[in-house]
């Protein structure tokens, strides 16, 4: 649309004599070839102004146009619109405040706007105008939003339609009075436009409602011609060459290479626009109702602009600021670029932008020379202009929408015809689907299986049917043919859309069972989506965990409240009972106190109450204290209910009727009866007492509290005291439990790090902790493996025990690491990994492998969203601590099972139900079921021992009701029956364990019975693991079990090497492993041990062990002295080195130490021998040695805590638990180097390097050989250290306590073994 131009604001007359008229050189027009500037001469005038009658009352208007902050393009900003009258007043007030002095009469300045400099890409400077300008901000913002949207849509087109719109609607705007004049004062503006590229050829400067400063003075412009080097003001027609600048007032057509900005309609001057426009091949013609401009001409008007190829115009809003200005940039003036693209009916697009300099161009503006003339504008002009702008916007948008609708319609019809002709039943618009986009899916019903269905629906999801399912109903379209459609909003996470069509019931069109799918471009790929799913899964898991934790917290809180309520009721009941007891006792005392004993004692005054000071007299004549030099009163009240509350020394009294002594005492407040005795000294030092023949002395308080009230208060006081005591005890227990849990967690964390670093001489990771979703580096030293010397090493990795859904990673050739000794490879750990698995090979295709002797390398992954699936382990054994324990086997079964269960796995234990079993430690024991097998009925009982589910098998034939575990001639037959019955129960009960773990010769039959009778008959899922605890018994059964077992272990690495030559073992070394036993940290815990006097941790080990030693000495009758104490806790057998024990006892006594021995011998001859030795030593070294030839569990705890050293001189020891328990209590082990003793004790002088290789520090004294000199070597060094380096010795005690010898590490090793058996 266009506006008709208003009549010029200047009257038609000659230039007056006052007019300043001068010719100045300026930089002006572009050259077509260079886009540079050449100097031209412009004639400028400053016209006089004819003001109307209302001139002085009009609001001045600035011609400096602020740039819009929302704009990012370079160019002129639109002229601001005017606000309401109220706003005008506020803005005028603001202007006055912003201009110091408030005067503008002498030299106009930018008084109402704060001008700030800012850098633009071309280093040009522009002015940012304060928002107090008189523009309607809402209107401007609306115009800008509309125009930006239009331009963004228009810029996507590749071609510019050549259609000329001649039917655009016109809009008139009646603005102000035609006779008004406007003048601008002389200004100088310097513009640097060198090498500036603007569009392809042109830029438009449009002047609205104003003449040009001193350079142009005109009253009425029609056609203006500009020469090569001059700019001439004319009032008639002037021709323009093709290199001139053209100002247009309407729409323009631009070639493919021209970039244009359209001036916002708000910047239209007061003159109306024309209706029609014509565009030549290389020129732009503006057609007005009264004026036309041919090819190569330029028309300066005061309204909207059209742009021809190769033209440029500068626009000012209602006033021009010139001197030497002609380019596209002005200081503090917005620049507008007009973009026009007329493709598929698109209309002229305009966008407002702030001033921006181009690259390597600078715009220097001398603000001091910039002058702004105030122009008056009628109030009605603003409203009229604003309405015109709004109407024009509405018309533009309507026309644009109509044209786009037509283009879209044509596109759909073309696509529909094309797809139908090709027999394609589905297409989508837009044809390229992007994430976070609305698409429309078209479906041709006639080409599908739903051709005769009245309703068509779409059902689908995203990303392989794994994300956000949807169902929508399709609507019939008006396209030619049977096309139906619906719209879908594609989520930002989508990389594929999957869908089928159906009739809402059971008729489907699913693309021949292949479903339909659309790729989504520019968004996530499948890998990123997998990570997203994992993250969502982790969030859901965390949410469920938080909800579960909250439920548990609430349940715990409810239990706590209920327990507190029950405890309060119990306290009340106990307080009532206690108060009643005290009442009866006090009633009896009051009767005794009523009897007079005035010849022995008396109180003055006779009437007193609680809180009074009284004098108590005592006549010691003929009493036990008759000859005492001092006399004290030890007193209390109410039958000594509060203990000692009166302690005073008596002095001689002046009474003459006896040997009277007296003291002033204060009567306790709540006293009903006073209780006291007399003594010859204060408490703790008195020797002789006068306690009234063991009845004490008692006196009633005459003015005491009434009885009933007293006992009500007394009961309440007792209740409060009980509550305080109970809560203090609960708090202490709670704090102790928290500390215990924290210490266990810290110990477990240290052990895990040791586990990860245990193979550091071969392989480790950086960082040590492998986290899900992280990138880690694996470092490998092949020199310590079978790949030593190989020219290449390849890293082969997967996750989750080689079962990750992505499969193994491609083999990766390792490269040298920075430390030169290792090779390295980098791995991205997936979020759903819980274990990293890897091996090494010499070639990409395999060759020789380093797979850790068939176990592979495994490192736990922390922080992932997936958890390792629990494994089901079943132990079949004939011993279990503490209910059926004979040796270390029972401890291992219980402790290992608990440790594995703590790792999150399921553990069950099968045990014979002996009639000699201690069932007090079995919780919730109940009959489960019975089954028939082996010619008898077998009852199955289920209970919990140490938190573990235990199945007790009780055959009715009495096979295990013989009063013992071992020791009968038919032990082999009995235990074989038990093993077979246990497997039968598993089969009949539907158990499907992953692991069957059996122990020693007694349950060895499980191996061949399982493989021969059950592995192919219902228990095929299980793998069998056999552990040898002691090879000295049942070698035949052990050898047969080794043949059938999938994996076999013994209780230490050294012992596995020591027995490797045994015929039962030697042929099965490939599946034979050594795993050191551990101890149960809950059973052996000096911080929570009820058998020792003071609980202690590594922080107070010295104090704790000192208290334990004193208690041990007192209990056994040893001399209480500070000497080294050697403890020996063992079974007295030849295996345990009894001859070395005897020698060590004598050597310790010679070194002025003490010895305590606890143990018994199954051989009576050995038992009698040690009994005879005990008699001799007890006689010859009384107070320094004590033999306790029995089994005493509480005493063993006290010995472990009180001893300085624990001696274990075994000739062979598969593992040994004694040295591990000793270190748990801070006692230093002295051991012989054999079996598990060698694997767990590192000599402080000789094993530093060996300990460091295990991530440990030296922790004891050890010796080789089996003669007395070996014992002396270790024992003498230990005792000397105790005497000569006590501080170092104390630090050694602390160090060994901090080492973890629990089942934390062995449990991890056993889980590795279980998984390798199932691999």
Secondary structure layout:
Layout: E1 21-30, E2 37-45, E3 59-61, H1 85-98, E4 116-119, E5 125-128, H2 137-154, E6 205-207, E7 230-231, E8 276-279, E9 284-287, E10 314-316, E11 336-340, E12 348-352, E13 375-377, H3 379-421, E14 426-429, E15 437-444, E16 457-462, E17 467-473, E18 475-476, E19 483-490, E20 496-502, E21 508-509, E22 516-519, H4 526-593, E23 601-604, E24 613-619, E25 632-637, E26 646-649, E27 651-652, E28 660-666, E29 673-679, E30 689-690, E31 697-700, H5 707-757, E32 763-766, E33 770-771, E34 775-780, E35 794-799, E36 812-813, E37 815-816, E38 823-828, E39 835-843, E40 846-850, E41 857-862, E42 872-876, H6 888-902, E43 906-912, E44 923-933, E45 936-945, E46 948-955, H7 971-989, E47 995-999, H8 1005-1014, E48 1023-1028, H9 1035-1044, E49 1047-1050, H10 1053-1058, H11 1063-1066, E50 1072-1074, H12 1101-1116, E51 1125-1129, H13 1138-1150, E52 1154-1158, H14 1164-1180, E53 1185-1188, H15 1193-1202, E54 1205-1208, H16 1218-1224, E55 1228-1232, H17 1235-1240, H18 1248-1253, E56 1261-1263, H19 1268-1284, H20 1286-1298, H21 1304-1318
Parallel strand pairs: 2-7, 6-10, 33-41, 42-43, 42-47, 43-46, 47-48, 48-49, 49-50, 51-52, 51-54, 52-53, 54-55, 55-56
Antiparallel strand pairs: 1-2, 3-13, 4-5, 8-9, 11-12, 14-15, 15-19, 16-17, 16-20, 18-19, 20-21, 20-22, 23-24, 24-28, 25-26, 25-29, 27-28, 29-30, 29-31, 32-34, 34-38, 35-36, 35-39, 37-38, 39-40, 39-41, 44-45, 45-46
Helix pairs in contact: 4-5, 7-8, 8-9, 12-15, 13-19
